[in-house]
């Protein structure tokens, strides 16, 4: 997108920002897609059946504005009341609602770096400032992450983090939240692939909000469905900011059925974890430095090869991975966990690219 400061009638904050650029989504040709952390397997059959039933059931009507069926299922899943949940058109929708609710023009939004690039865009849309706190060398977060600042209105913490796949344990997240005087949003897009999560902190600490998505562990990225978990009084405020009908009837039905099928989730997570270990080992055999991941992707760097050239070389042979370059931090490859066949194909291509020198 063009960076232009003078566009008639457009707010200067919008005219001067770059805009978020999503990962490549090729629609033609045969590509092995390991670039946007989708699940390589199709979703629960129950979700597909629910879409068919919902489509028969009356698309001439608006959907339920609060997605009640999903909230009831989520309440069962997490042992909370339905009032603790707000649904969104993907968890990006919830991150937007949260930023619009808490962060005004000139306010400060804080998040770690390197992490999810969208957070900065959300601050820019508000005309707010963002503060990016670097992770420590061991992917922990130091005291500067909770440094008091009167302008600080919201903190995002992706956990597990992207692109590293690393996680902060709930006790550490709780300690950080206790030091903050604003809400801490724990973005748990990838938490189903990890051993721990922070959902119980939402009950224990008034300033902790958790966001979740069905895009990754439930294999429903094409559906667009996510949810936030927060105290009912917080959910009431967020509800004022959301679009009236931010989730459609088909996605509500499918997401409700998917969440109910925990057997599918458990089996899928087991497969992804197994493949993740194989991907990490395969990359290490090729000489990459690999960060041990708790998510469905792996961050790797090579000590003496150009990452961009490896990305382009793999792309030329039909495999997409994500090349990430973080200013003043460095670059590398973020590779989504695929099927065993997809991973074998990728490792073979990387091996031949490395052999070429
Ligand atoms: C850390 C993180 N949060 C949130 C999202 C958004 O997920 P969705 O909008 O598909 O729910 C992503 C997507 O890649 C992500 O990496």
List the helices and strands and how they pair.
Blueprint: H1 12-15, E1 32-34, H2 45-56, H3 68-78, E2 85-88, H4 91-102, E3 108-113, H5 118-126, E4 129-134, E5 152-158, H6 170-179, E6 184-187, H7 199-204, E7 208-213, E8 226-229, H8 232-241, H9 249-260, H10 262-285, E9 289-290, E10 297-301, H11 307-316, E11 319-326, E12 330-336, H12 340-356
Parallel strand pairs: 1-11, 3-4, 3-5, 5-6, 6-7
Antiparallel strand pairs: 2-8, 7-8, 9-10, 10-12, 11-12
The structure holds pyridoxal-5'-phosphate (PLP).
Pyridoxal-5'-phosphate (PLP) binds at residues 37, 90-92, 116, 158, 162, 187, 189, 213, 215, 221, 226.
Discrete helix count: 12
CATH superfamily of the largest domain: Type I PLP-dependent aspartate aminotransferase-like (Major domain)
The assigned structural class equals alpha/beta
Q: Could you name the CATH topology of the largest domain? A: Aspartate Aminotransferase, domain 2
Residue fraction in strands = 15-25%
What top-tier CATH class of the largest domain fits best?
Alpha Beta
Strand order of the largest sheet: 2-8-7-6-5-3-4
Measured on Cα atoms, how large is the radius of gyration? 20 Å
- At CATH level 2, the architecture of the largest domain is 3-Layer(aba) Sandwich
Round the mean pLDDT to the nearest integer and report it.
96
Which ligands occur here?
A: pyridoxal-5'-phosphate
Which of globular, elongated, flat, extended, rod-shaped describes the shape?
globular
What percent of residues adopt helix (DSSP H or I)? 25-40%
Weakly predicted, low-confidence segments: none
Order of helices and strands: HEHHEHEHEEHEHEEHHHEEHEEH
Count of structural domains? 2
């Amino acid at each position: 997108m063009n960076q232009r400061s003078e566009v008639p009638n457009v707010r200067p904050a919008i005219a001067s920002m770059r805009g978020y650029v999503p990962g490549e989504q090729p629609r033609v040709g045969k590509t092995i897609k390991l670039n946007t952390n989708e699940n390589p397997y199709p979703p629960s059959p129950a979700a597909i059946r629910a879409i068919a039933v919902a489509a028969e059931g009356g698309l001439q009507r608006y959907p339920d504005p609060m997605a009640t069926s999903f909230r009831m299922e989520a309440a069962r899943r997490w042992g909370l009341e339905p009032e603790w949940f707000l649904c969104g058109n993907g968890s990006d929708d919830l991150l937007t609602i949260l930023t619009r609710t808490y962060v005004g023009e000139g306010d400060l939004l804080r998040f770690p770096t390197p992490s999810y690039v969208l957070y900065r865009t959300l601050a820019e849309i508000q005309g707010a400032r963002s503060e990016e706190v670097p992770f420590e060398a061991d992917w922990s977060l130091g005291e500067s992450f909770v440094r008091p600042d009167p302008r600080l209105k919201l903190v995002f913490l992706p956990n597990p983090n992207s692109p590293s796949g690393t996680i902060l344990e709930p006790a550490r997240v709780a300690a950080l939240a206790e030091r903050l005087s604003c809400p801490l949003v724990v973005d748990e897009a990838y938490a189903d692939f990890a051993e721990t999560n922070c959902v119980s902190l939402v009950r224990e600490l008034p300033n902790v909000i958790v966001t979740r998505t069905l895009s990754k562990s439930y294999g429903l990225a094409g559906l667009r469905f996510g949810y936030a978990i927060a105290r009912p009084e917080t959910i009431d405020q967020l509800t004022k900011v959301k679009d009236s009908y931010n989730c459609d009837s088909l996605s509500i039905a499918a997401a409700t059925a998917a969440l109910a099928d925990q057997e599918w989730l458990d089996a899928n997570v087991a497969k992804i974890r197994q493949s993740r270990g194989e991907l990490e080992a395969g990359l290490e055999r090729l000489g990459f430095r690999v960060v041990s991941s708790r998510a469905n992707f792996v961050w790797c760097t090579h000590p003496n090869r150009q990452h961009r050239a490896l990305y382009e070389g793999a792309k030329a042979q039909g495999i997409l991975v994500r090349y990430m370059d973080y200013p003043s931090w460095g670059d590398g490859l973020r590779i989504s966990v695929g099927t065993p066949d997809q991973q074998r194909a990728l490792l073979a291509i990387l091996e031949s690219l490395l052999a070429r020198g």
